[in-house]
Sequence to fold (351 residues):
Amino acid sequence: MEFALSSTSILKANGVQAALDILHYGPLDHTTESDSGVPPQPKEDEIETGARNRALAAHRKFPNAFAIGIENGLRRTPFNTVDVAVVVVIAPDGSESVAESEAVVFPAHIVDEARRRGFDKVTAGQVLAENVGSRHDDPHLYLTGGRKSRSVFITEAVIKALAKWAEKPTGQTETYRIVIGNVFRDLPIREVAPGVRVALFNLLGDWELTEAIGAELVKLIPKGTQALLMPDGKALALLHVMGRIANLPTFVARKELKPYMAAPALKVRFRSITTDKIQHLFLGRDDADRISGLKVAIVDDVVSTGGTLIAVRQLLALAHAEEGAVMAAYTEGGTRPDVIALGNLPLFPTK
Fold:
């Protein structure tokens, strides 16, 4: 595979090369400068337009390469203004993939100053550099407290965009691809109940994906959360990753009554999508006393029909704890307004 970046920026080139290294694609073959066709400080829809214009320019010059266009710009949210990088990749056959980086919040007074001076003349990064001495082409390093440079944000977005063409494992003919940060997986699609086919999402033993999901979910934990609670299952490592990063106590609602549980244990019953049997969840009296009065986020790997979620909510009520949020790596079969998730896994029709 051949790759062409429509920019001669060292930051962008480093970010793209890091993505190619992670995906085992080899070197970045070409860099070429082109006009984005948008103002120096793009905003809203101009961001994707600029990235696409750059990718098209590289595609015309290197038609046999995967052409990569990258544009950073400002986007307003209900609460603030953020910087995002949009990556557009055009394959030699003309097919296209678009991905977006993690957002970084810009100080309101910096954005206002750049807007006052004119986005056609100055960028928010340049104004920030004038105020605090940061790099004008890499405000991300300052805005994240040294945690992530602009190149790293670009790397993650490029991986998402290129994952569309990444080679699938041998023997997997029907899969669904997920991408978290710089980690991607092809989930096998299987029938788990009559007429119900899902992308099997299994964190068990996958420390790399577990760490990536935990790091992303921690960023979304609502303020004021005092503890995390997860139903027993194969995703317990995710609970521990989140607890470690967020420095919050963690609790597990067990599916069996264990001898070590202090009596009287709390007990609720439920039925999940993957079985037609009645199951139970238990919380020992000692854990129930510890969690009582706390604002608790319920954590799970996937929320689908919500049977398990209802049971966990009942346990919280019995323990006199407050539900602060429901968090999951993915919802399944459709997004849910009551669940904070990184994405949604669709249901697939039976053949």
In short: The mean pLDDT is 86. The chain has two domains: 3-164, 186-345. The radius of gyration is 23 Å.
